[in-house]
Amino acid sequence: MDVTNQDLRLETTEQGFLIDPADWNEDVAEQLAALNHIKLNAEHWEIILFIRRYYQQFKHLPNARVFTKAVAKELGEAKGNSRYLHKLFPDGPLKYACKLAGLPKPPTCL
């Protein structure tokens, strides 16, 4: 699958994850979100930018449980719970946060 970013075609995996994370920017995130029927708002961006920082800091992606706990620790209990995260990303908070953040597919996601 390819995502078109102005005159640039970005390569993605069959599941829509960017092959080259360096291709990511906010416009790319918006396009990936649209392809996944997600309209990004400030709450989505908060989680997307959080998972990008996490990945840059730890050089790996967490599993879903660690992700939820890390969100709670940094953004507060109201946002670090599965109900809130599933409201933003109904088909899988960690998977879609990573996808829209231009990160690899988490190893624990199907």
Question: In brief, what are we looking at here?
Answer:
By secondary structure, the protein is mainly α. Helices cover 49% and strands 7% of the residues.
Keywords:
110 residues, mainly alpha, two-stranded antiparallel ribbon, 5 helices
Describe this structure in words.
Helix content is 49%, strand content 7%. It is mainly alpha-helical and 110 residues long. It has a single domain (2-100), classed as Orthogonal Bundle (Arc Repressor Mutant, subunit A), CATH 1.10.10.370. The longest helix is centred in the middle third of the chain and has 17 residues, at 42-58. The model has no long low-confidence stretch (mean pLDDT 91).
Topology:
Elements: E1 2-5, E2 8-11, H1 26-35, H2 42-58, H3 64-75, H4 82-88, H5 93-100
Antiparallel strand pairs: 1-2
Distance between the termini: 18 Å
State the share of residues found in helices, binned by percent.
Answer: 40-55%
Overall body shape:
globular
The number of helical elements comes to 5
Total DSSP E strands: 2
Highest-level CATH class: Mainly Alpha
CATH structural fold name: Arc Repressor Mutant, subunit A
Low-confidence parts: none
Question: Averaging pLDDT over every residue, what do you get?
Answer: 91
The arrangement of helices and strands along the chain is EEHHHHH
How many domains make up the coordinates?
1
User: What percentage of amino acids are in beta strands?
Assistant: 5-15%
For the largest sheet, list the strands in their spatial order: 1-2
| CATH superfamily membership | DsrC protein, C-terminal domain
Radius of gyration equals 13 Å
Class of secondary structure makeup: mainly alpha
Instruction: Give the biggest sheet.
Output: 2 strands, antiparallel
Which CATH architecture? Orthogonal Bundle
